[in-house]
Design goal:
The protein has 149 residues and is mainly beta. 11% of the residues lie in helices and 45% in strands. The strands form two sheets. Strands 1-10-5-4-3 form a five-stranded antiparallel β-sheet, with helices on one face. The protein has a five-stranded antiparallel β-sheet with strand order 2-7-8-9-6. The longest helix is centred in the first third of the chain and has 11 residues. The radius of gyration is 15 Å and the shape is globular. The two termini are 27 Å apart. InterPro entries: DUF2948. It comes from Bradyrhizobium zhengyangense. Pfam families: DUF2948 (PF11164).
Length: 149
């Protein structure tokens, strides 16, 4: 088993690395937790272990992981049905767009993009993102994160 990841992103280049690791992750709306008072968004997911897959293992493995954004000023979603919390969304990737297109500014917007046309936009004071693996997804489907947070 490959070691569990714990990655931190403080700029767009760092976030591109995290985006690569969460490509094709499965996310359920019930596991998207917006804590407005804490300025934090946490997304539970079942992500592919890309390192293990690229190493030539025959059986793809999924890991339960948590993606956390801090210093979030606003959180908006599009085409994500919160009324169906057990639906499965396929995460395509994450992008960062600096405020007013100026790279020297720490603030901007992080976009989580989903295959079915869904998106989450986070307006952030500055980029602070962390991806942490929590263990193997033994079921391969359910995330089992309900009630946490």
């Amino acid at each position: 088993m490959s070691p569990q990841l714990k990655l931190i992103a403080l700029d767009a280049d760092d976030l591109a690395v995290i985006s690569t690791h969460v490509q094709d992750a499965r996310v359920q709306p019930a596991d998207i937790i917006w804590r407005q008072a804490e300025k934090r968004l946490v997304v539970g997911m079942s992500r592919l272990d890309w390192e293990q897959t690229l190493a030539g293992e025959t059986e793809p493995r999924r890991l339960v992981s948590a993606l956390r954004f801090d210093r979030v000023l606003a959180c908006k979603s599009r085409n994500i049905d919160l009324a169906t919390p057990e639906a499965v969304l396929d995460l395509v990737g994450i992008e960062f767009h600096p405020q007013d297109g100026r790279d020297e500014e720490p603030g901007g917007s992080a976009l989580l993009l989903f295959a079915q046309g869904g998106a989450i936009r986070l307006d952030v004071e500055c980029l602070e993102c962390q991806l942490t693996d929590l263990g193997a997804d033994e079921l391969g489907t359910g995330l089992g994160l309900e009630g946490e947070g």
